[in-house]
Structures are given as C-alpha cells and as structure tokens.
Design goal:
The complex is a heterodimer of chains A (204) and B (162).
Chain A (H helix, E strand, L loop, with lengths): L9 H26 L3 E3 L3 E6 H4 L9 E11 L3 E8 H12 L10 H26 L3 E3 L3 E6 H13 L4 E11 L5 E8 L1 H10 L4
Helix pairs in contact in A: 1-4
Chain B lengths: L3 E4 L5 E5 L2 E8 L3 E7 L4 E7 L17 H14 L7 E7 L15 H15 L3 E7 L5 E6 L5 E4 L5 E3 L1
Parallel strand pairs in B: 1-3, 6-7
Antiparallel strand pairs in B: 2-5, 3-8, 4-5, 4-6, 8-9, 9-10
Classes of the chains: A alpha+beta (204), B alpha+beta (162).
C-alpha cells in the first residue's frame, strides 16, 4: 500500500488522534505525578506538513527550545520529540529540583533531569501505545539539545526527507495549571511503519 | 534602494542579483551552500538536507540532495547572468544536534552532508573559500550579494562573518 498522507480518511485521522490522546494522556499523567501539579492537555492534532513548514511549528526556526529526542523501534518505528520553550524548561527544573534559574545556562544535573523527564514521558507514551495495539515498541536512550527550533527539528525532518516531502505528526500541547510550563509532544512514525500501525488498529 | 531579505527553507534553492540577502534560520544538520559570482554580483543559496539522490527512491525533489541541488543552483545563477567559472562557495551547517551513545548512521547525517557537498563542489570545480561546519549547534546564516560575506549567528557559540 502506497501511503499518501493527503488521502487519509477521517476515520484514520480519528484513530491517529485517539492514539495521541491515549499516549500523551498517559505521558502527561506521569509528568503530573512527578511534579505533583495538575497538567492540562489539549486534544491532540494530526498534522501533515511540508518539510519546510516543520521547523516553524514552534513559533519560528530561530526560537530557542529544549528538545528531547528518542527513537522508537520494534513493530513500529519513528521519532518522539518533546519540545519545551526555554522559559518552561527553567520553570520545570525549578519545580523539580528547587532553586531559581534565570539564564539559559543549565548545569549537568539540570540537563540529566530534563533527559529523564523526556524518558518518562516517552516511556509512558509508548507503553500505552504498545498496550493498546499489542505491538512491541522499544525506546532509545533520550538525547537532549538546547538550541534553535529549526536546528533541533532538522533531525526528524531529515529522517522524513529520506521518505518523502511531507511529515505526519501527532502533536499534543499541554500546560501546567497556571500555564507556567508549556510543552509539545510530537510522535512522528516512520512512513514504512505507518501502514503497519493502521493495520494493527484495523483501519488500513 | 532597499535590500530584500529572502528566506530559504529546508530543501529550497534560490539565486538572486545584487542587491539581495539570502537567509536561512536555524540550520541544524542540513548544509547551507552559498555561491557567489563576485564579478556579476549574483548570489545563490541551497539548503541541502541529504547527501545523495541515488540512495533514495523518492528523489523527485532535486533541491533536497547535495548531488542534484548544487547543479540546480549553478544553473539558476547562470540563468540570471552568473558565469560558473567565476563562482566560489562558502558553506555552513552540518551539525550533529544530538549525541547518542550508540553510533547511528542517521545521526551522522550532518557530517555526511558536508562530505557530499564538498565532493559535489569539487566536481563542478567550485572552490570553497570559507566554511563553518560541524559542531553540535544550530546556525542562522545571512549571505550578502554586496560583498559575498556570510554572517553566522548561533546560540552560545558566538557570531562571525566568513
């Protein structure tokens, strides 16, 4: 089956949205427990974007962000990217580790705390997907970059560039109760495992 | 005369006559290839994301690959008056944004893009007069037709003009 993202029907889009809902719902619950704060999650969106548009999704290619990147392997392969604006990264670290940060300089403890947050979010996201679909999914060790959004996103964009000129992503925005922490959790399945995913879910 | 700044997105190629500024924001593992014909003041920029169109089935978009985008850029520059014999190059980007413990071929993509760009430029006998490549950080680049200078901004790794 040739996948053309433009041709996804509304049922398939709904199923993908629901995947995002369950995966991100579990991830956000894990974060909420970790911080002991209420976290609000928006309804996930399934977006199909041109390669060039992807670097703009975070308010511009030059905006500094924290990006935590993991690879999914197994019955479904793809990328998981957790993006936080700098201000949110600082507040999140303050909540988690105490203290007060005002610059962009994070120490090694801060960086590994951010990686661990990514690890927990991605782990709960994928394990709920695995439970739902009966698929075997493994997640790589998280890698972290604090840099321009365009540069951070170039990594998943390039992987997609191997396969086509558009990217399908399931995007979930969330924010902590009083909006001090905002984030974006992206699930970007590889094209070849996309068919597999739709089949497993019974909507291929 | 006002100079128009033109943004070059990922997998785009653009040529322009003086006065012009070509800009790419947040370049990561991609490579920005900047060509300049100083005599005719024609500039061109390609935002290359992959080394070779031959490794990939879906290769219709020529602006994506080093081996097809560079030829395309030279031709577009010639179409507005450049002479390929007097074109020189400056290149930037090709960073490795994430370091993983396992060495994954996909993650070395920045380095492989830079190698491919060097090979292609030398095949077309275009000399690289300056470069700022590699590292683990993003770059915003601005290329000026006025003198062929390339300004590079980073977060935490300074600003320079090459």
């Amino acid at each position: 089956m040739e996948i053309n993202y433009e041709n996804l029907n509304s049922m398939q889009l709904d199923v993908l949205k629901e995947l995002g809902n369950i995966g991100a719902g579990n991830a956000v619950t894990a974060l909420s427990k970790m911080l002991d704060k209420k976290i609000n999650m928006e309804v996930p969106q399934v977006r199909i974007l041109e390669l060039a548009e992807v670097s703009e999704i975070f308010g511009g290619a030059e905006v500094p962000v924290t990006g935590i990147y993991l690879r999914m392997e197994g019955d479904i392969s793809g990328n998981i990217m957790f993006l936080l604006p700098m201000e949110s990264s600082r507040v999140l670290l303050d909540m988690l580790m105490g203290g007060y940060r005002d610059g962009d300089e994070f120490d090694d403890m801060d960086l590994s705390a951010l990686e661990e947050i990514g690890n927990i979010l991605a782990g709960s996201y994928t394990s709920s997907l695995a439970a739902l679909t009966g698929m075997n999914i493994r997640v790589s060790v998280p890698a972290l970059a604090i840099d321009m959004a365009g540069a951070v996103l170039s990594v998943p964009i390039i992987q997609f560039g191997h396969m086509g000129d558009s990217v399908m992503l399931i995007e979930t925005h969330f924010s902590e109760g009083n909006k001090h922490v905002k984030g974006n959790l992206l699930l970007i399945p590889d094209v070849e495992s996309f068919v597999n995913l739709l089949e497993k879910l019974g909507v291929a | 005369m006002t100079v128009v700044m033109t943004k070059i997105g990922i997998a785009e190629v653009r040529a322009a006559k003086d006065p012009a500024v070509l800009v790419t924001l947040g370049l990561g593992s991609c490579v920005g290839v900047c060509l300049y014909d100083s005599r005719r003041k024609v500039i061109g920029m390609a935002h290359i994301m992959l080394p070779s169109s031959k490794e990939i089935k879906n290769n219709a978009n020529k602006a994506k690959f080093a081996d097809t985008a560079i030829v395309m850029l030279i031709e577009e520059m010639e179409a507005i008056g450049a002479d390929r014999k007097s074109v020189t190059a400056k290149i930037a980007g090709g960073a490795q944004m994430f370091s993983f413990k396992s060495s994954n071929e996909l993650l070395r993509i920045g380095e492989r893009n830079v190698e491919a760009v060097r090979r292609e430029l030398s095949r077309h006998r275009v000399e690289i007069v300056a470069e700022d490549v590699g590292g683990n950080y993003g770059r915003t680049i601005e290329f000026f037709s006025r003198d062929g200078s390339l300004s590079i901004r980073t977060i935490g790794h300074g600003t320079k003009v090459i």
